[in-house]
Structures are given as C-alpha cells and as structure tokens.
C-alpha cells in the first residue's frame, strides 16, 4: 500500500495530517487546516466545485512541516447520509460474506443499494471467545455524494486511496489497546454537529449525530454578549462555564444548550445499553467510559459540567494515544488542545502509514 496522508473534510474546514515512520516510532510530518467559506459545502454536498478544488490545492500548498511528496490521500467526507450498521451473519467463508451483505443490506441500511457504495469489515470475536455467527460492520454512502468528492480531489491532482467514515477514523486515533478492553462512548463536538459513537469489542457498534455543536454554543454567546461570531468563539473557549465571568452571562447563554446536549448524551447511553447491539457476547452492554474530542471539547468546564449532568465521568480524549507511547498528549508541532480538532485526520493518517496495525 502506498503511503498516504489523512484529509478530514467538513462544511467549514479541510484538515490534513501526514505521519511518517522513524525507526519504530511514528512522527507527525505535515499538518494544516484550511477554512472553507460558507456556501462552498452545504449540508455535506459540494455547492461550488471550482472554489472547492481551489481550496484543496491551497491546503496542499500551504501545509506546515514537510512538503507532501505523495498524492495519495485517505479522506473522510461529511457523513450526513452515510450509514453504519453491525450485522450478524451465519458462519460462512469470507468470499461468501460480500454477497450475503449485499443481499441483506437494504434491510439494514435506508439506501437503494444500486445507488450506494458499501463496504464491510469482519469484526473479530473478543479474545478467548468463539461465536456461533459472524459480526460484520457495514458502511454505505450515496454514490452521487462520494463521486462528487472523488472528482474534486482528482481535479486537485490527488489520488484517493480510501474514503472512510469520520467515526471509524476517530476511533483508530483514540482507542488504545487498553481502551479497547472497555465499552467506550465518544462524543466528538464539531462545528456543525456532534457525533456520538460507541466502540466495543474491537469495533464501532453504534453511531449517530446530534444538532448541538460548537457553532450552536458560539451563536448563543454572540447574541447574549452582542459581539461578532469570531469574538464569541474566543470567549467560548477561554471562559466557557465560568459563572464568575461577565456576571454569569456567558454561563447563562450556554446552560440551556448544554443541558440539552448532556441529556442527549445520557439518552444515547441508555439507548445503547437497553438495545441489542451486542448479541451473544460480541460486545458489552454497559458503557464503561465517556470520552470527548473535537474542536469544541476545549470549551472551559464543558466536560466537568456534562459529567455532573449525566452522573458519569467524562474524560478528554487523547488523539495521539496510538502514536505517542509515553503519557505525552501533544507533539511539538500541534498542542493537545488543537489536536482535539484533528482527531479524525489523525486516525485517517494512521491508516496511511505503511505497516500500521
């Protein structure tokens, strides 16, 4: 497999991470973020193709660190219409699994299978256990959406090695061998949405999105404080849930939004634990740990406030958990706080490192 870099595309940004081997270590070689102006990508669809291609080229030209010497990219595109399901199949040979999945895909995924790309990955049983069935993770996306991104990337002189869902890439970054022994709910707070993912027994078992996001919180502060969006963004990160700042105005602006946000996290915990995503011992019913990542995970006191609401500890994730083997949580190039916004790009880049396992 050729070496590739990771590119995480959202409605508002393009983030790039390139990793490289140095002996037994994996180091960061290149990184960058390019803002995507409003209207270029709308609800996950490319609205202005030429502008988007220009931004792709700009993101490559202005990369920090080493110049990118590979054209190969592993990309995560906005997953608004991407669906993930864990399905069970009878014991069968690998060559028969694809046919079985395609035959049953329309029952599990709300897309016309002839108008969608779909892929699958067999989930190994937990260590020491044998199952009377096969668990497989199935992912499907509309062809029209994926084709539009591939066409734009190729127009920017890039070669697409793989397209991957953001949640699966994020898990590759933060789920260490130690965390893989537990059932973990990950809250990825992005600009326009928050992605809720449950990882258990070696695989993503469940993923969904909620509307509360970084921009939701920033908008509330901008209106309450009568300041610009960019100024409100700085205020959100620096002061967050500090009741003693500005007579509690910032706290009061955020409280109803984050109360709803915390309830949604709690509801998804209950939903997962009460439904059968883990049949026959292939996953664990009880969620042991909650992690938070994404650019708005840095909002001051956000994790502590939500922890009290859901009555479970929420820890900030470590996107470098499978790269920095010491307890370090940042590289000289990117601070820990900034790296939380690069979680998906880091996971994509890990897949692009030769012989990574």
Indicate the CATH topology of the largest domain.
Answer: Nucleotidyltransferase, domain 5
Strand numbers in spatial order across the main sheet: 6-3-2-1-7-11
Q: What is the helical fraction, as a range of percent?
A: 25-40%
Give a count of the beta strands, DSSP E runs of length 2 or more: 16
Average residue-wise pLDDT: 88
The major sheet is characterized as: 6 strands, mixed
Determine Rg (CA atoms, Å): 20 Å
Number of domains: 2
Can you walk me through this structure?
- With 357 residues, the protein is α/β, with parallel strands linked by helices.
- 34% of the residues lie in helices and 27% in strands.
- The chain contains ten helices and 16 strands.
- The protein has a six-stranded mixed sheet, sandwiched between helices. Strands 14-13-12-15-16 form a five-stranded mixed sheet, with helices on both faces. A three-stranded antiparallel sheet has the order 8-10-9.
- Helix 7 packs across helix 8.
- The relative contact order is 0.16.
- About 1% of the residues have low confidence.
Outline of the structure:
This protein has helices spanning 49-61, 94-108, 143-155, 166-174, 214-225, 229-239, 249-274, 302-310, 336-339, 343-351; strands at residues 5-9, 13-22, 25-35, 41-42, 45-46, 64-65, 72-76, 83-89, 116-123, 134-142, 159-163, 184-189, 194-200, 203-210, 289-293, 314-316. The protein is of the alpha/beta class.
SSE layout:
Elements: E1 5-9, E2 13-22, E3 25-35, E4 41-42, E5 45-46, H1 49-61, E6 64-65, E7 72-76, E8 83-89, H2 94-108, E9 116-123, E10 134-142, H3 143-155, E11 159-163, H4 166-174, E12 184-189, E13 194-200, E14 203-210, H5 214-225, H6 229-239, H7 249-274, E15 289-293, H8 302-310, E16 314-316, H9 336-339, H10 343-351
Parallel strand pairs: 1-7, 7-11, 12-15, 15-16
Antiparallel strand pairs: 1-2, 2-3, 3-6, 4-5, 8-10, 9-10, 12-13, 13-14
């Amino acid at each position: 497999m050729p070496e590739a870099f990771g590119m995480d595309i959202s409605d508002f940004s393009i983030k790039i991470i390139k990793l490289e081997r140095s002996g037994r270590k994996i180091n960061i070689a290149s990184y960058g973020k390019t803002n995507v102006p409003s209207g270029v990508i709308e609800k996950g669809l490319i609205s202005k193709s030429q502008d988007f291609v220009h931004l792709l080229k700009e993101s490559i030209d202005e990369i920090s660190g080493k110049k990118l010497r590979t054209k190969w990219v592993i990309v995560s595109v906005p997953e608004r219409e991407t669906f993930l399901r864990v399905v069970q199949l009878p014991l069968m040979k690998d060559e028969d699994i694809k046919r079985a999945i395609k035959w049953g895909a329309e029952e599990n995924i709300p897309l016309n299978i002839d108008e969608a790309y779909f892929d699958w990955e067999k989930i190994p049983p937990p260590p020491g256990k044998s199952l009377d069935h096969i668990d497989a993770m199935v992912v499907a996306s509309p062809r029209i959406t994926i084709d539009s991104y591939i066409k734009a990337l190729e127009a920017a002189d890039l070669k697409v090695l793989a397209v991957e869902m953001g949640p699966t890439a994020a898990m590759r970054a933060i789920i260490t061998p130690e965390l893989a022994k537990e059932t973990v709910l990950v809250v990825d707070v992005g600009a326009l949405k928050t992605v809720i993912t449950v990882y258990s027994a070696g695989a993503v078992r469940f993923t969904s999105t909620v509307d509360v996001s970084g921009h939701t919180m920033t908008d509330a502060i901008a209106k309450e404080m009568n300041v610009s969006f960019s100024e409100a963004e700085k205020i959100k990160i620096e002061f967050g849930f500090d009741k003693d700042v500005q007579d509690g105005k910032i706290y009061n602006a955020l409280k109803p939004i984050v109360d709803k946000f915390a309830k949604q996290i709690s509801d998804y915990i209950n939903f997962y634990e009460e439904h059968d995503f883990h049949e026959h011992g292939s996953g664990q019913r009880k969620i042991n740990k909650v992690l938070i990542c994404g650019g708005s995970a840095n909002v001051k006191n956000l994790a502590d406030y939500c922890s009290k609401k859901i009555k479970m500890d929420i820890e900030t994730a470590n996107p470098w958990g499978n790269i920095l083997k010491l307890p370090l949580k940042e590289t000289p190039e990117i601070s820990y706080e900034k790296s939380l916004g690069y979680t998906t790009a880091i996971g994509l880049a890990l897949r692009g490192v030769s012989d990574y396992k």
